[in-house]
Amino acid sequence: MTPDNTASEDADSCLTAASGVFLFNAARGITQFRPDRSAEQYAAGGMSVNILIIDGQGGRMGKSLAEEIRKICPDASITAVGTNSIATGNMMKANAADHFATGENAVITACRKAQIIVGPIGIAMADAMMGEISPAMANAVASSPAYRVLIPMNLCDTYVAGTVKGSSAILADAMEHIRQLTERKTDE
């Protein structure tokens, strides 16, 4: 942060712009992400894809997700929400998200506004991640109208068949799916 508060002013203008885009879209009846539209179509219509990353524990996965999503979706509005301050802090270190928040209410509120939710599979399971995911958080993720891209991890007292612990192929597959959701379709 600079002494003249430039970073704070940038964050305020980003928030104002994001709010304006949301209100513009809501007035036109567009409140939900549609996977059949490309990122370019959203941009042409004054819309940007709103991607929410949720992570807990140490935030390492969230940090990696933010970095990779920013590479494949440079114009997306990315919000990173940690279930604890350490997770949020580590996601901030990626310097790839536009907005950051911490805690249960932040997860619930962000899920209502997101068009795509990305995170470990435990974010949709109550009491997952050593109890960091409350039933209200899990319900917010599961009942959100957003499109969800959940990364299967064999943690949280849940075994996901067909996954290999620590497999980088899982993360690569998730990034490819997000890229396909947001890129221009060649058959249009």
Oligomeric assembly: single chain
Gross CATH architecture: 3-Layer(aba) Sandwich
Output the CATH homologous superfamily: NAD(P)-binding Rossmann-like Domain
Globally, the shape reads: globular
Average pLDDT confidence is 78
Radius of gyration: 16 Å
Explain the overall architecture.
- The chain has 188 residues and is of the alpha/beta class.
- The protein has a single domain, classed as NAD(P)-binding Rossmann-like Domain (Rossmann fold), CATH 3.40.50.720.
- 47% of the residues lie in helices and 14% in strands.
- A five-stranded parallel beta sheet has the order 3-2-1-4-5, with helices on both faces.
Brief characterization of the structure:
This protein has a single domain (32-182), classed as 3-Layer(aba) Sandwich (Rossmann fold).
SSE layout and pairing:
Layout lengths: L5 H22 L11 H6 L5 E6 L4 H13 L4 E6 L2 H9 L5 E4 L1 H10 L2 E5 L7 H4 L3 H9 L3 E5 L16 H15 L6
Organism: uncultured bacterium Contig27
Protein name: DUF3842 family protein
